[in-house]
Amino acid sequence: MFDKKAKPGAARQRQLDRYAQLVDRLSPRSRLGQGLLRAFLCGGTICAIGQVFLELGQRYLDMTVATSITFGSMMIVFMTAVLTGVGVFDKIGQYGGAGAFVPISGFANAMVSPAMEFRREGLVLGLGAKLFTIAGPVLVWGISASVIVGILYTFFPW
């Protein structure tokens, strides 16, 4: 049908060359160093804020280490959800790139963003369905993995 290994004709090759020149001319230049620095600073700031919550939980709320870790994660998720709802986290994500989305804040943003569009479809089909477009697969795989590990641990305790 279509042979990918065949050489294009002269007219087609000229068309491909013009397209490559157009792509080179119109594509924005990447500033890799600046992007890496921004991602590092943004992700580091988010993690530092999480560490502040962890320390606050241990020192002032008399939480255990495990409880304060959960508290810190919950606060980062809550703050990200609120910032996504008011439209601020999108600006943070544009500035910090992957640094804003790699920590747990990216998961919170991925859940809240589609859920904000529920108004068109209603509360149940809109919010209920949109909220789990991202969380659904994560929950299914997480629960499935825990069941499999539980079964394996029953037969092979380590």
Question: In words, what does this structure look like?
Answer:
The chain has 158 residues and is an all-alpha fold. It has one domain. It contains 7 helices and no strands. It has helices at 10-26, 32-59, 65-85, 88-96, 98-101, 104-115, 123-155. It is extended.
Counting DSSP H or I runs of 4 or more residues, the number of helices is 7
Alpha carbon gap, first and last residue: 56 Å
Strand content: under 5%
- The backbone outline, from C-alpha atoms, is extended
Please give the largest β-sheet.
none
Radius of gyration: 23 Å
What count of structural domains? 1
Order of helices and strands: HHHHHHH
> How many strands in all?
0
Residue-averaged pLDDT, rounded?
85
Helix content: over 70%
Instruction: Give the helix/strand class.
Output: mainly alpha
- Uncertain segments: none
Q: How are the elements arranged and paired?
A:
Layout: H1 10-26, H2 32-59, H3 65-85, H4 88-96, H5 98-101, H6 104-115, H7 123-155
Based on the model shown, name its key terms.
78% helix, 7 helices, 158 residues, mainly alpha
Condensed summary:
The chain has helices at residues 10-26, 32-59, 65-85, 88-96, 98-101, 104-115, 123-155. With 158 residues, it is an all-alpha fold.
